[in-house]
Specification:
Elements lengths: L1 H16 L8 E3 L1 H14 L5 E8 L4 E3 L5 E11 L4 E10 L2 E21 L14 E7 L7 E2 L9 E2 L9 E2 L3 E2 L9 E8 L2 E9 L8 E6 L5 E6 L4 E4 L1
Parallel strand pairs: 12-16
Antiparallel strand pairs: 1-3, 2-6, 4-5, 5-6, 6-7, 8-10, 9-11, 12-13, 13-14, 14-15, 15-16
Length: 235
């Protein structure tokens, strides 16, 4: 009897410890579907970097069995006015079509823009090392923002700039060479003859700016072009 009980106990333990073979489910995630849609954007000749948000249709799947999957996107249509896209997606599992869904969402063009890499104060001159490039949705960049590096470097900060924030057209300007009240040389050129007179700047300005200058002797005001920090040219 004892031997029989020991045998049954051994068989029971053996049965419990023997693993059963279960097939792992196969998951297709939303990010997999989005990558397939973005690939179709590129296949259709979209040269810009694009970001998408899918809000219509099934975007994640679970299959009871399978080892590999592939997503085929077709019929991609873009509505440029609304920024929406429409397409169909077929999910193939181990080479066989397992599911089909119609999808829709919004797409966003991504732009590369330059912003301050550090906080900058009024009066600072912007150097290349003060800038960094970031990616941003084009729809968020309003016309008043300056995003090109060549249009920012060498400019003077007119309002404090925050690190990572877009730069507005009123936030920066030409470096102020002449300030209101500065004494300058007024250069008159005519028929090969140059006349120099002393004047007082009535406004601030940078190189090539037209500012009002008062002749120190006649007390008359005229407009002149800034050449450098000491000289203006009367044209």
């Amino acid at each position: 009897m004892k031997k029989l009980l020991n045998l049954l106990l051994f068989l029971g333990v053996t049965a419990l410890s023997t693993p059963k073979a279960f097939a792992e489910p196969l998951y297709v995630l939303q990010e997999n579907v989005q990558q397939a849609i973005l690939a179709e954007f590129e296949n259709q000749g979209m040269e810009d970097e694009v970001e998408i948000e899918v809000y219509g249709g099934q975007t994640s799947f679970q299959f009871d069995k399978g080892e590999t999957f592939k997503i085929l996107v077709s019929g991609l249509r873009l509505d440029e006015a609304s920024g929406k896209f429409f397409c169909s997606a077929e999910v193939f599992v181990d080479g066989k079509m397992a599911h089909k869904t119609d999808l829709q969402g919004r797409y966003f063009i991504i732009a590369k823009v330059y912003v301050p890499s550090v906080n900058l104060q009024k009066g600072d001159l912007i150097k290349e090392e003060n800038l960094k490039q970031i990616s941003m949705r084009l729809s968020k960049i309003k016309p008043q923002y300056i995003i090109e590096k060549e249009k920012i470097i060498g400019m003077e900060v007119k309002k404090p700039l925050r690190e990572g924030r877009l730069i507005g057209s009123r936030d920066i300007g030409k470096h102020t060479l002449i300030k209101k009240g500065n004494t300058v040389n007024m250069l008159y050129s005519s028929a090969g003859i140059q006349i120099v007179a002393k004047g007082v700047a009535m406004t601030d300005g940078g190189k090539d700016d037209k500012i009002e200058v008062m002749n120190s002797k006649s007390k008359k005001s005229i407009f002149a072009i800034i050449i450098d920090k000491d000289n203006v040219e009367v044209r």
